[in-house]
Amino acid sequence: MTPLHFTIFIFVSFIFASSSSRSAPPGHPFDPLTETELKLVRTIINKSYPIGPNHKFTFQYVGLNEPDKSLVLSWHSSVNHTVKPPPRQAFVIARDNGKSREIVVDFSSRAIVSDKIHVGNGYPMLSSYEQEAAIELVFKFKPFHDAVTKRGLNVSEIVFTTSTIGWYGESEAETERVVRMLPFYLDGSVNMYLRPIEGMTILVNLDVMKVTEFKDRLTVTMPKANGKEYRLSKLKPPFGPTLQNAVVLQPDGPGFNVDGHIVRWANWEFHLSFDVRAGIIISLASIFDMDVNKYRQVLYKGHLSEIFIPYMDPSDDWYFATYFDCGDFGCGKCAVSLKPYTDCPAGAVFMDGIFAGQYGTPTKIPNVMCIFEKYAGDIMWRHTEAEIPNLEITEVRPDVSLIARIVTTVGNYDYIVDYEFKPSGSIKIGVGLTGVLEVKPVEYIHKSEIGEEDIQGTIVTDNTVGVNHDHFVTFRLDLDIDGTQNSFVRNELVTKRTAKSVNTPRKSYWTTRPKTAKTEAEARVKLGLKAEELVVVNPNRKTKHGNEAGYRILSGAATGPLLAQDDYPQIRAAFTNYNVWITLYNRSEVWAGGLYADQSHGDDTLAVWSQRNREIENKDIVMWYTVGFHHVPSQEDFPTMPTLSGGFELRPTNFFEQNPVLKSKPIKLTNAEKCIPKN
Ligand SMILES: *[C@@H]1O[C@H](CO)[C@@H](O)[C@H](O)[C@H]1NC(C)=O
Ligand SMILES: *[C@@H]1O[C@H](CO)[C@@H](O)[C@H](O)[C@H]1NC(C)=O
Ligand SMILES: *[C@@H]1O[C@H](CO)[C@@H](O)[C@H](O)[C@H]1NC(C)=O
Ligand SMILES: *[C@@H]1O[C@H](CO)[C@@H](O)[C@H](O)[C@H]1NC(C)=O
Ligand SMILES: [Cu+2]
């Protein structure tokens, strides 16, 4: 670099720094808060509420304050974005002297524009710092050391995780912001979740940082440390199965373009952001329609809203295990740095995530999201025409898709969340579960020893039961098909008997009976009960053949809750009572389990909002979809679990006039080795 370049560089950055300090930095209204903005939030709040280790004010959530939708849309649709973007603001939830405080900070006026105390149930997301502080506290707690000694364990080999405690009918006045500390024993294994130390109840109040309860009841057989290794460097031969190195060749480089947080690829354009609670946020996804020569809106905003994991062991050491991973711990905060070539394939582009720590200090998770093209040997479409004499036709187009991925590791589980875009217009949302089971130590090593007793799980190795549980992964999808005014159509497929008068040997056939849901109640769907297509349509936009432009849901497994409706965890997680819900758009209704999920009472859930039974026909509506898994552990899930996948697809239905990928040219891999079958 020549000195001249250097001078110019300094000059340019000086201009940028000075202009950005006067007004909000330019960019996209959905851009995540930058490091500079997070620091500004801290500075502005510090003027009203002293921040630091000696004060009782901590940041629990800091994120972009959802900008007004109409302002975003007028900015977005204006030519060259000449219309001013909405004001840029941060939404903060803090703990302030034992209360939850909600603050909105405005960047252009550099002021707090809204400030109120949360009244009602539930607590905000835990911060990493307070979880670490709680662990330190227990290590200094004498009765804990005594219990460890009594069990003949070595305290240096103990590690902790923090567990939320749920809610079991206590009144609001009776609850405190308490977590339960779960001890695990290393001693020869790093696979800590497979070596729980059971029988200790250790509660820590996070607001006052005190151990508020300590009970030591029993000692249970500790599962042995051996056989739990999963690090390649420590495993012993033989290795296998052997996989040939596989790479996708991209001789011309990746086919997508990342401009700030905007991703453009094939016919898609969308904004990709990070939130400490949701993880990835996709917004303003639109697809180019060659017939009308413009981009058409599909998804205004889509993201993970909650993950609910109830365990099925009602005993003292387990009953509370009913987690709301995003609301309790933060599905973005627990997201991990992705590894090139293994978490994401060659050619992937990575993005960092930044969030505010305990005292508002920006904390970075490098490479927390990745974007890559996936070619997995799938066929986009094909046809062989063999019936025309003297003419053989085969046309085939290989399928390529674009994936935005995040992996969030909430304790023992690793959740892989993929947003996949297809040139045909589909958006597929995939959830992969992997990681390590939560297990319970038992005396048994063989199934035959159990007898009639109910052990709520499967013996996966000596003295170890993988406990039965569910995973309910709920997404919030604000679809805006060609605009905000949409309807939800349940298109039932019904069997009909042929009329006597019709001259046919057939006795039956099926036909469609579409019904537009008028209210939220009519749009609650349990999958698998009926043959029906679920379609979000824009009734104001029809194809030239009169069909309403829409996107339908191609659902995954029909998995719903099995807990009793009056069981406390299910009251709190009533948003899982249906797989699909439609609500009227409301920018405050974002988190299916409530804004304050920790110890919530179920009074601010999607199920409660839906009870308002608002009219939803030809309105701005939001779709909620829950991917459910009942998990009966098996021995293959030990010592780590091969990925278990689920998901669903949003597929255009009468959105285009014809096959949108008809004229997509086949990929030409001229540099690639010829694919000749070996004999
Ligand atoms: C808050 O302001 C006080 C007083 O100006 C200062 O000493 C302290 O460092 C600030 N804290 C943070 C986290 O900025
Ligand atoms: C928008 O920007 C493009 C490229 O800079 C320019 O050619 C075009 O004239 C602009 N249109 C308007 C309406 O300003
Ligand atoms: C306890 O564990 C520590 C750290 O792993 C080790 O250094 C120490 O020797 C152990 N103590 C006993 C009594 O085994
Ligand atoms: C939006 O949602 C919040 C939270 O559920 C609720 O308090 C508010 O009344 C709703 N607004 C409208 C206009 O329905
Ligand atoms: Cu599981």
UniProtKB/TrEMBL annotation:
Pfam family, any one: Cu_amine_oxid
Cofactor note: Contains 1 topaquinone per subunit.
Gene3D superfamilies, sorted: 3.10.450.40, Copper amine oxidase, catalytic domain
Posttranslational mods: Topaquinone (TPQ) is generated by copper-dependent autoxidation of a specific tyrosyl residue.
Keywords: Copper, Disulfide bond, Metal-binding, Oxidoreductase, Signal, TPQ
Domain Copper amine oxidase N3-terminal span(s) in chain numbering: 124-218
GO biological process per UniProt: amine metabolic process; response to abscisic acid; response to auxin; response to jasmonic acid; response to putrescine; response to salicylic acid; response to water deprivation; response to wounding
Annotated positions of the 2',4',5'-topaquinone modification: Y413
Domain Copper amine oxidase catalytic: 248-662
EC number: 1.4.3.-
Domain of life: Eukaryota
Lipid metabolism listed as a keyword: no
Keyword Signal among record annotations: yes
Active site: D325 (proton acceptor), Y413 (proton acceptor)
GO MF entries: aliphatic amine oxidase activity; copper ion binding; primary methylamine oxidase activity; quinone binding
Cofactor(s) the protein needs: Cu cation
Cleavable signal peptide: 1-23
Family, similarity comment: Belongs to the copper/topaquinone oxidase family.
PANTHER family in the record: AMINE OXIDASE [COPPER-CONTAINING] ALPHA 3, PEROXISOMAL, COPPER AMINE OXIDASE
Name this polypeptide is given: Amine oxidase
Annotated organism of origin: Eutrema salsugineum (Saltwater cress)
